[in-house]
């Protein structure tokens, strides 16, 4: 890491991981440029010492590039880019509309991509190690009834992050994907959790209906403490605290429920491969 004070640019800083990463970085004396669709939503971060800027990740790339240029000019560098914008679209695939499908990909995936594109020239020009942190989820590892679109976006975020890692390492940029389990943020609150406009009665008594009920029950009862989680994230991204002496990993399986969920997916996948390998590997040219 550079000996200069770290400078963070964080999207979706009005709540959840974006907000508490900003507060944790500020508590360490770092510079933070916090963004949200409206600066009024992050006035508390401004009071805590952050610079604030209005940014909608779904804006056209030229607009994001302008914001990136202005952000970089504040301190002459960006060392940590955090893409925290994202939401869950709840609904069976048959229920969600093409517009709802596009909108969730536009925020969760295309927004992340375009913010990265806008900031990369400045990250590459900054000396020392830099980081890009994207938010996946345990849903990056497994789909499920009623949240296929969310899972699809998070698989995309994780896959893109894995690809960015070797692309950007030659420039001293470490890419990581944070894959949290259930943390007690406002993510599932009314207004943040988006439900498909169409809800078909045919799905009420199926596993989709069970998912709806489970999300209602989980809201505000998640096991993860977002403040503790963000302290670990900032430690990892700055090689400090619990992560002192460690490299920045390609993925951060965050929360007590994330590693077990991923481990089960690995076991199930290995079992499937073992069962079908004699058949599926018999397809080469003679």
Automatic annotation (TrEMBL):
Keywords: Oxidoreductase. The keyword Transcription does not apply. CDD domains: 17beta-HSD-like_SDR_c. Transmembrane segments: none annotated. The keyword Transferase does not apply. This is NAD(P)-binding protein. Belongs to the short-chain dehydrogenases/reductases (SDR) family. Pfam families: adh_short (PF00106). GO terms for molecular function: oxidoreductase activity.
């Amino acid at each position: 890491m550079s000996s200069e004070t770290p400078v963070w640019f964080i999207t979706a800083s009005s709540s959840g991981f974006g907000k508490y990463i900003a507060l944790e970085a500020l508590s360490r004396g770092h510079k933070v440029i916090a963004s949200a669709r409206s600066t009024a939503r992050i006035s508390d971060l401004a009071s805590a010492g952050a610079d604030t800027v209005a940014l909608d990740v779904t804006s056209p790339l030229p607009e994001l590039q302008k914001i990136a240029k202005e952000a970089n000019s504040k301190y002459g560098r960006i060392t940590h880019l955090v893409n925290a914008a994202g939401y869950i679209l709840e609904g069976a695939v048959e229920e969600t509309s093409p517009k709802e499908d596009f909108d969730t990909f536009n925020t969760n995936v295309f927004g992340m991509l375009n913010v990265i594109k806008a900031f990369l020239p400045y990250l590459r020009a900054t000396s020392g190690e830099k980081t890009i942190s994207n938010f996946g989820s345990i849903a990056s590892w497994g789909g499920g009834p009623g949240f296929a679109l969310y899972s699809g976006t998070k698989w995309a975020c994780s896959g893109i992050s894995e690809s960015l890692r070797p692309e950007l390492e030659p420039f001293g940029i470490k890419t990581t994907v944070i894959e949290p389990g259930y943390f007690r943020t406002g993510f599932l609150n009314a207004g943040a959790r988006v439900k498909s406009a169409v809800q078909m009665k045919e799905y009420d008594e199926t596993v989709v209906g069970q998912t709806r009920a489970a999300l209602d029950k989980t809201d505000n009862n998640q096991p993860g403490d977002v403040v503790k989680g963000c302290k670990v994230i900032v430690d990892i991204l700055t090689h400090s605290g619990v992560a002192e002496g460690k490299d920045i990993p390609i993925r951060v399986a965050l929360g007590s429920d994330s590693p077990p969920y991923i481990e089960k997916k690995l076991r199930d996948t290995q079992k499937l491969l073992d069962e079908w390998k004699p058949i599926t590997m018999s397809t080469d040219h003679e």
